[in-house]
TrEMBL record:
Belongs to the tetrahydrofolate dehydrogenase/cyclohydrolase family. This is Bifunctional protein FolD. Pfam families: THF_DHG_CYH (PF00763), THF_DHG_CYH_C (PF02882). InterPro entries: Aminoacid_DH-like_N_sf, NAD(P)-bd_dom_sf, THF_DH/CycHdrlase, THF_DH/CycHdrlase_cat_dom, THF_DH/CycHdrlase_CS, THF_DH/CycHdrlase_NAD-bd_dom. It comes from Gracilibacillus boraciitolerans JCM 21714.
């Protein structure tokens, strides 16, 4: 048996095509969804992500503004800018690209963004809404992962989902979204003992640790498991690889996501979804 590959780039394209039609309809009503991205410093990975966000915005018809600031920008200056954007009616989504320079506290910045414009889904109010099963802006990568599985009509109810990694951006929220879908969730992390036992019991295995081929060899993967690889790692030859050794895992799994062309394109697509949703909410259409 060889797994069916879930190509996030294909699903992302079809969702963006739908969004393009929706934005055209909104524009005809005089509503122009607006996203402002704030980039501090010149981290190459951040610049690459931002470029992808601008490209997606252009495609679906979202007005995208990029504000680039030097890494000498103070926390007070950044908070002042966020406050201005919170008040600006044409801005429906505010995204401050992480990571930030060390002298700026990420959590303070996240909490300064209005929950109604927090299209990253990181504000504690939106996290709280997600935890209690309320409608909100879900964090983009976890939301994208759920959409990928649903696109293949994979039933999540009653499945044992094992998540390796407990970051606030992916690990924790994807577990909560799976719990909201009635899955049984186990978190594994750097202090977990005998992790192999948990991997062996996983109907759904989500790996988000940022270490190339962290899951190496399909030995511990359960026959027929769904394997979602969130890691993007650049190896010595310059190519990208995931946290899972794809070739061995696909022999055991029923579904698997590749790296690249897997989870990554879905993250930006869900950002577009959240921005459009915000524009609709602010204008009383959702």
């Amino acid at each position: 048996m060889s797994a069916e590959v879930i190509y996030g780039n294909e699903l992302a394209q079809s969702l963006r095509d739908e969004m393009k039609k929706e934005v055209t309809e909104l524009r005809n009503k005089g509503i122009i969804p607006g996203l402002t991205v704030v980039l501090i410093g010149d981290d190459p990975a951040s610049k690459s992500y931002v470029k992808g966000k601008q490209k997606a915005s252009d495609y679906v018809g979202v007005d995208s503004e990029l504000i680039e600031l030097p890494d000498t920008t103070t926390q007070a200056q950044l908070l002042s800018l966020i406050n201005e954007l919170n008040e600006k009616e044409s801005v429906h989504g505010i995204l401050v690209q992480l990571p930030l320079p060390s002298h700026i506290e990420e959590q303070v910045v996240i909490e300064a963004i209005s929950p109604e414009k927090d299209v990253d889904g990181f504000h504690p109010i939106n996290i709280g809404r997600m935890m209690t099963g309320k409608d909100t802006f879900f964090p983009c990568t976890p939301y994208g992962i759920i959409q990928m599985m649903k696109s293949k009509n994979i039933s999540l109810e009653g499945k044992h989902a094992v998540i390796i990694g407990r970051s606030n951006i992916v690990g924790k929220p994807v577990g909560q979204l799976l719990l909201n879908e009635n899955a049984t969730v186990t978190y594994c992390h750097s202090r977990t003992k005998e992790m192999e036992k948990y991997i062996e019991s996983a109907d759904i295995l989500i790996v988000a640790v940022g270490k190339a081929n962290f899951i190496n060899g399909g030995d511990h993967i359960k026959e027929g498991a769904i394997v979602i690889d969130v890691g993007v790692n650049r190896i010595e030859d310059g190519s990208l690889t995931g946290d899972v050794d794809f070739d061995s895992a696909k022999e055991k799994a029923s579904y698997i996501t590749p790296v690249p062309k897997g989870v990554g394109p879905m993250t930006i697509t869900m950002l577009m979804h959240n921005t459009i949703k915000s524009a609709k909410k602010i204008n009383g259409l959702a």
